[in-house]
Amino acid sequence: MRPIRRPGAARPDDRGFTLIELLVVMIVLGLLAAIAVPAMLTQRRKAYESTAKADVKNITKEIMALYVDGAGPMTIAGSAGAWEIRSGTEVLTSGELSEHNVVSAASYANDSTDFCLSVRNTEVNAQFWTADDVGLRAGDC
Q1: Long-range pairs for 123-127 at CB < 8 Å and ≥24 separation?
Q2: Cα–Cα distance between 64 and 56 in angstroms, integer?
Q3: Model's pTM, two decimal places?
Q4: Which helix (H) or strand (E) holds 90?
Q5: Domain residue ranges of the chain, discontinuous segments joined by +
Q6: Is domain 19-138 in CATH 3.60.70, yes or no?
Q7: Is 107 strand, coil or helix?
């Protein structure tokens, strides 16, 4: 009669993994990590740039609505997570910026429907995204 073996108990002929097998597995995992990490980092940057583009588009819609309403020369400013459009000392409209986004000090809007608005995300120091009468593009005013 053979003795009953408990599940999970080691057999006399079990030797485990060799050092070579363990090294091969570690090398394969290292290669996979080397491929995945840079791809994830670029996705983070793209996400921050998308928030800047979205802020530019939202503020541009407000500027265009003010032009339709007959607004004259305007100043566009942003600080501490907020933006505002002024005509002289009167605030025409304002709103919030996405986290870490700033409006360029060079942004402007004059009375001939000519404007330039730039927003940049400071978290990844992404480039400015600018909207003007031509459309959305990279760069500052």
Answers
A1: 123/48, 123/99, 124/44, 124/45, 124/48, 124/49, 126/45, 126/48, 126/49, 126/52, 127/49
A2: 12
A3: 0.68
A4: strand 90-96
A5: 19-138
A6: no
A7: coil
> Closest Cα partner for 62 from 103, 13, 16, 32?
103
How many residues in the chain? 141
Q: What is the pLDDT of residues 110-138, one digit of tens each?
A: 767 778 888 888 887 767 777 776 778 78
Q: Model confidence over 48-83: pLDDT tens digits?
A: 888 888 888 888 888 888 888 877 788 888 877 888
Nearest Cα residue to 100 out of 139, 66, 50, 141: 50
Q: Which helix (H) or strand (E) holds 34?
A: helix 19-68
